[in-house]
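As described in the Methods, two query proteins were run sequentially through the folding procedure within a single session, without resetting any intermediate state between them. The first query and its resulting structure tokens are shown here.
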Amino acid sequence: MFELKKFRFKTWHFVLLFILFFILVNIIGLISINGNSYSIENEIAQIEEIYDLSEIENSTEIVSIIFYKEDSNICGKMMHNINQLTNKNSKFYRSEVNKNSELYKKYNISGVPCTLILKNGEEISRIMGLVPTSNLEIIYSRIAK
């Protein structure tokens, strides 16, 4: 009959598998990054820029400020998610951190995207990073209660 030979893994097998895995992960990563780019110019047009703090400090309604960088893909995606909210019970503003450092420093923003939710000029919630639209809906519905 047939004689089966024992196969033994050698060091070069593991090295070859590691190299193939590394190449595959990089190719898939580049495809996913390039395929999901959001133009921040399209997203910021729907949210008003804020320059003066008096607009929000005297407001009795819920106010949200998203801090962003113009060259950030993640910030573009977060603004896209905010624009997709169906339950907009808050007034939305945006602030580019390089152009409006006064707000950035006043609220101790450590990274972008960062969304502050304010009521009567006081911070009631802070959303750090990229948050899906469904989670934003839940956050804003809880705040509205």
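Immediately afterward, the second query was submitted; its sequence and tokens are:
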Amino acid sequence: MDSSIEGATEAGHGDSGEGDPAVAGVAAQGAADGGSGRPPGSTEAGAAGAGAAVTAGAVAAPPVSLSPSRVGDFMQCPLLYRFRVIDRLPEKPSEAATRGTLVHAVLERLFDAPAAERTAPRAKSLIPGQWDRLRETRPEVVELFADDPQGERLARWLGEAEQLVERWFTLEDPSRLEPAEREMFVEAELESGLRLRGIIDRVDVAPTGEVRIVDYKTGKAPRPEYAEGALFQMKFYALVVWRLKRVVPRRLQLVYLGSGDVLTYDPVLADLERVERKLLALWEAIRQATETGDWRPRPTRLCGWCDHQAHCPEFGGTPPPYPLPVRGAESPGVPQGRMGPG
């Protein structure tokens, strides 16, 4: 690791879809890993301006911004994006995503302790309390273990969370880190008017001003051909930071707790400009789909993870009536065609 970044954060020193690997990396990571550990109805989704809600009956509204999760949804399947952002169909919690949320909370809270007390036993001791808090703030997660009266499956699941937390200590030393920000909400508006929003797990800043953006993943590192997709989320965050602070982050770092890998990338301005162009193109496609009501499914192997098969034409389902005005529509119903893989 770059010594200027590592030393800067030491205490006492300032401290997939088919085809396009970028699409597959973003989409497959979210499906298999629970993504960032935040469910579709989480803070990031809400901050993303009409992220998927977990309750029915929300008033439909056109999208107003993009987050990394919603970018991944649209690239994976435009119809999935519609279901989550416009229809706001409810989704059941998953064990993987909920475990990711729990582990993220533990790693964030550990930094409340003095540096010398940031140990693996201390971190694991936070798990029961953070699980209780999660059940209070998101009661729907209780149903994950409704059929587990003896608590055996819950105990195994909590044990898996402990293993992920413990593995983190083999990858980073929190006693030598003093993050500048944790769970940092960021938002920037581009010249086009597009708003970009998200939540960054951790930001480390060197005394010289160099910035490292860190994201925790509770799944396994992607295969090399999908690494670019995994880094797209980080470049998204880097773009927002650059737009806000006019500083290009020195390093982007993905910490994969499931496999014990760390993926890093040192971006340059040209990387961020390319990401901005791609986001603008995606936003134009989203705008057109919003106005026409033409949200097509893109069938891939990831369909097996989808909660919305009952509403998807690929599975014989029918999408709910489109809740927004449709440009040039002759009838309330807009048939959903099909988009080929990749």
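Residues 269-292 form the longest helix (24 residues). We note this only descriptively and draw no conclusion about the first query from it.
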